[in-house]
Amino acid sequence: MGLRDDLERFREVGESRRQDLSQFISYGDLGQSTQGSVQIPIKIVDLPEFVYDKRSMGGVGQGQGGTPQPGQPVGPPQPGDGDEDGEPGEEGADHEYYEMDPEEFAKELDEELGLELEPKGKQVVEEIEGDFTDITRTGPRGTLDFEELFKRGLKRKLAMDFDESYVREGLKVRDATPRDVYEWARNQNIPVSLAWIADQASQLAADELNQWESFEAVEENVANEPTINRLRREGLREIPFRKQDERFRYPEIIEKKERNVVVVNIRDVSGSMRERKRELVERTLTPLDWYLTGKYDTASFHYIAHDADAWEVDRPEFFGIRSGGGTKISSAYKLAAEILEQYPFSEWNRYVFAAGDSENSSNDTKDAVIPLMESIDANLHAYIETQPGGAAINATHAEEVERQLGDRDNVAVTRVGEPNDVIDAIYDILSTEGTTDD
């Protein structure tokens, strides 16, 4: 491999490539992104190159004065580009950012997780006329469906047709009356009327009567030709159209529905929610916000912080705020119910995402939170437990919700103990949403 091949290989390795999506969500810098623009780092790798020193270096293979001779030790390693103690340097590599809009982010996250949420539109914003695919019994003459008329007439023709000459032979049976011939024909499923038989009987000449001793003799000696064979031989002369066969085409009315979503994010900000827990909350809820923004035409977000009380905050404050108070999760769900009154479930897709360390005041989960979750209509309720190193003894909220509501198809409970758990948690939430049916 020559120098040119080496350079080509380094160019391929050093090509600007954005960070893997799952790694970005779990470990990347989310703070560079906004609600409408996801900024994913691209590592910049410099290509190697030769640097020629213009100073005279002496002859080939010659060192400077004092250079050890062959066989002599070269001494201890000298500090390089690390710190003074020879440790590796900590200076970060340069980065640029790949800008991804929420729609692209949602598409790639679907591919990453093997999911594809198809949002349902709820609020009708427009009705348009589609193709003339629907049929009605009345309408303007210009919309008469001639093909349907022909089909219905032809169907009647085939159902009513019979071999007239065969039935006439029945009239030639000795002493047979029109009623006798009618019953004989009907026993053979021949769709003939008594009036037609009586009319044909009146037209028979005297020398045509009494040619057969019985109907059995007619059946043995005269063939009843099937309708399809006769039509093939004689062709189709007429089709008996009737008024009730008429069908009129009219356009299908297509309702265009706007895909609206409202997301209420709830976070425990009590004293037990320290920095590591807050970071895990942000890493889980932020990609969900981007994802739903990319999936829906209109996305509205509300953020509720709570300790023993709850209050609405803006997004930047939501992930940074910390309180020294206790915890009462039901206070947040009461506020969420008030906020969602502005967004009728018949018109809006609704999500309620709550996150915390599962610590709650005594009996609040059972007596208040679970009844509130049951009363709030939503596509999905999700609770994300963030407990690095495992749950504490009094961290029972997630377990109680899971026990009481875990069998519902619009409730997801997931746990995040470290950044590696974030992608799995997002999958748990979105895959639960994928099974819901409005």
Automatic annotation (TrEMBL):
The Gly residues compositionally biased stretches are 58-68
Signal peptide start-end: none
Q: Which domain of life is it from?
A: Archaea
Q: Where is this region: Disordered?
A: 55-94
Q: Where is the composition biased (Acidic residues)?
A: 81-91
Q: Which SUPFAM superfamilies match?
A: vWA-like (SSF53300)
- Pro residues bias located where? 70-79
Matches recorded under InterPro entries: UPF0229, vWFA_dom_sf
Q: Which PANTHER family match?
A: UPF0229 PROTEIN YEAH (PTHR30510:SF2)
NCBIfam families from the entry? PRK05325.2-5
* This protein's name: YeaH/YhbH family protein
- Species for this entry: Natronocalculus amylovorans
